Each structure stands twice: as C-alpha cells, then as structure tokens.
Amino acid sequence: MSSIDDPERQYQLSRERLKDADLHPDDIDAVLEFLDAINPDISTVNFTSENGERETKAYSTLAAYAQALKRVGELANTPLVEMPDTRAVNAFFDDVGSGTHPDVKDDGYAKSTLSQWQSGVTKFYQYHDDLGIDHSEVVVKRQPKSSVDERDMYTPDEIQELRDTVSNTRDRCILELLLNTGQRIRAIQTLRVKDVNTDDGIYYLNTDEAGLKGADKNGKKRPLLGAKRAVYDWLKDHPTGEPDDYLITCLPTAQRGTPGEKLSQSTMRERLKKLADDAGVDKPPNPHNFRHYFVTACKRDYGMDESTIKHLIGHGPNSKVMETTYQHLTDDDHIESAEVAAGLREPDEESPLTPQVCPTCGEQLEPEAKACPGCGTVFAPNAKDTEEQIQEDIKQNYAGSEPESEVQQELSAVDEALTNLPPKLKQQLIEELSDDDE
Predict the structure, then answer these.
(1) Domain Tyr recombinase: where (predicted)?
(2) Predicted confidence band at 252 (pLDDT cuts at 50, 70, 90)?
(3) From residue 258, how far is each of 264, 346, 404 by CA, in Å?
(4) Long-range contacts of 9-16 (CB under 8 A, 24+ apart)
(5) What is the DSSP string of 106-117?
(6) pLDDT at position 339, please?
(7) What predicted TM-score, i.e. pTM, was given to this entire model?
C-alpha cells in the first residue's frame, strides 16, 4: 500500500475527486486528457512544448493541476471548454481575486492560490489550443520569490542544543541528514538502507520514488559529510537492516508502525518539533530550515561556488535560487567585509557544521575544525573535497607513467600512505590545502 506522502497516490486521489466533481462533462474529459498528456508514464497522448519536445510534469504538479482545474471549473459560470475568449478567463480570475464573485469570500483568494490556479489553466489552454484561448495572455499573478528570513536561521549554538537533546539514534540520523545534506524531506524519507554507504561516506537518492522535485537530475550520488556517523549508528539499531527497506522507519521498540516501511513526513516533522521544544530552540523546526542552514554554511562559511551548491541541493545550473531565496548571503557578505575592513570585527572562522564533540571518537573539537584531529572524520564540504584532491592531484601528476614503472609503484605506496595517514597530520594537510584554495 502506498504512503499518504506518495505524490502518485495524491495525484490519483485528486484525479478521482475530479471525476466525481459537479462539472460540465466536457470539462472533466478535457482536463483528464490534458493530465494524461503531461503524465510521464502515459504515452498515448502527448503534450508538445513550444520548443517542439514532449513536456511532462511530476506527480506532485499533476495533483496540483487537477485540484486547480477542478476548483476553477466549480466556480466558473461558463465551462472551461466554452470560454469565449482570454478576456473572459482573466475577468473570472479578477472576480475571485477581488471577492466580487458571488461564491467567494469578501476579500477574495490570496495571490498564491490564484497563481496556482492560473498556472494550471494556462497549461490546460496551451494543450487545448483548439479552444481559441491564447494561453500566453492569461495573466498569472505570481508571488515574488520568497527569501530566507535570517532571523529564523539557526545559530551554531542552537544546532548544538538540538544535537545534545536527541534521545535516539533514528532521530539523530534524521537531524544530521537534514543538516549535512541540504536535501528536502522527501529525499530523506525515501532513502533505503542500500542507498547509504557509511564506509565511503556517500548516499544515493532513491530515484525509484516520485516527488524528488528534480534533485536527481544532477546525478544520484551525494556526500554524507557529518551525517556519516549518525547513519552508521542508526543502521546498527535499524529494526530490519534489510537493503530494500527504508532507512527512516519506526524504532525497534515502537508499538505502532511496520518495521522497514518509511516514516510519514508528518511523523518526521513531529519529531523535529518535539526536539526543538525539548531543546528550548524557539525557531521553526521545519525541514527546510535545515536546508537553508546547509546552503548558508556552504556559501558563506566554506566558500563553495554556487554551481556546486545548486548541484548538492538539486537545483539546475540555470536556477536563480541563490539570487532569490538566499539573497541574505550577499547582504551579509557586504556587511561583514565592511566591518572587517573598518576593524570593527574579526573574520568569522567558525565551522557551523562541526559539532562540539566528534561523534565517531569523542574528541573535543575546535569551532573552526573542518575534520576531527582524532579520527579524521570530515565535517565541512570543502574539507572532503580537499581530502579527495590530495589523492587525485598526485595521481594526475604521474598519470603518464608506465603501469609497472618504479614511479607507479612509488605512487601506489604514497596512495596507501595517504589513506592511512595519522588523523592529526591529515587534519593539518586539509587545513593547509583549504587555505591555499581560498
């Protein structure tokens, strides 16, 4: 049985409600045909975009379109398939937006709601271009892209308070995955046991699940970074340990739930809220706040380039997310640069993803540590890159050597030595190379 969080199930429910709605029969048929045309799993009808290629949408978008077109069809006095012209479509939206429509509350619908409805209607008429409505002239009242309110951002001290309050390995795994990967809750929720590799410190997005919102288009492989130990500890306590079972599932001692089945998003959110309440952290404990924390750390504290950040969090290279959602980073950079130049403050060298105590070996960590000097566990994104750079650069320098040459034999010895490098020396090398890259 599919989960309530499954986008495909949500779409099927929206589709059934559409079929049962009090709409003109021709509207129902036209909307269902449109939805089939943009469904990636149906090929009998196709939606051809303006560039001549087939266009499909994720199930979450299909569900949103089905709900929007159902509601518009219920409120409109004229069936969608009988609208006389684009002016009539825009007049309808003006009425429901202003509250002058007889079946709408006095202050009308919010712009965000209208924007969703208008987007669905626009695509509907783009597909049904034989209905005589110019989809490009349907006015979409788009909300400006919201930016992160930095007052809601966690501080490193608040993150540490959350870490100190976690009471079981599963909740710690959830917290550290959200904090160290920047992924949306759906991506974390759908990870399977076989999708994580704590030996190599990596995980793979589960592309068998819908609802990743394009995060997998940049590739599936991602670094675990500071979540590595938390994932390892939870795997030891996992109620089944079966490779195909979900990583985030019920606790072994739980009275409810099926071991190995994915935890619902509502339960995950409830656990995060309880964690914040118990820790006394009075800021939104929603999963996206951890995503914002991760992006902020990568950009401001680790100097990661924007293309890499967008790759890690699942945005395409042309995404404007850094210029919109994370505008506060640019503002803060200018303020800090001015204050440092004026001698009013020292440059902030703290590493915000680094815990006070290494979760692997228990070593006390300095705030600016990018890796543990006791065991070598890596916490900062650029430190991990540096670790890989150490080995890759040496290999590249001798890439042209004969396979059996003394140089290659020496290279193999150096490669092995780097792998077994004492943690304190490894940490020193990471710090020095990181400084060189800045």
Answers:
(1) 149-340
(2) very high
(3) 11, 52, 55
(4) 10/59, 10/60, 10/63, 11/59, 11/60, 11/62, 11/63, 11/66, 13/63, 14/62, 14/63, 14/66, 14/67, 14/70, 15/66
(5) TT---HHHHHHH
(6) 60
(7) 0.59
